[in-house]
Amino acid sequence: MSNIEDIGAHLAGRIAAARAARKWSLADVAERSGVSRAMLSKVERMEASPTATVLMRIASALDMTLAELLTPAAGGDARVRRRADQPVWTDPATGYRRRQVCLSPALPLELAEVELPAGAEVAAPAASYLLIRQVLWVIEGRVVIIEGEGRTALGPGDRLEFGPPSDCVFRNEGDAPCRYLVAVVRR
Fold it and tell me: What is the model's pTM?
């Protein structure tokens, strides 16, 4: 699912289906997510490409993880997902690129490889951490994690186990991209 049109169609369908399953209007999702009704409508009509922050807000409102919102059901042998079949999504505003390595209905574990471009930052609302616990492990480059009032700088090989839900910012203050693995356990 690396094709932009495929991702847009998947997101539009996934959000609309989740909304319909809950019998929620666009206004209901807007109220719960803090994302405007107009933006939600544009996303569902594939007229806008949402940012990572917007998608995290929508996923939280729908009681889903970002991976559950972005990833289509695996076909064939769900135990094996080749690199070419791992969905990749890129934030249109920051260039943040997320490859969903693992999302399995049989496991409460999600694995995502993230590349954060130099100078980029992505904000994640506290609500996106209500359903999960997560650990970030830096593969290459450097990333700064701001959790609430705390600031943690990480380099290659460093890892951070996130604390209680709080607003977070993932920031690359360096001159080179940063690549890290995020391991998420659903509650």
Answer: 0.85
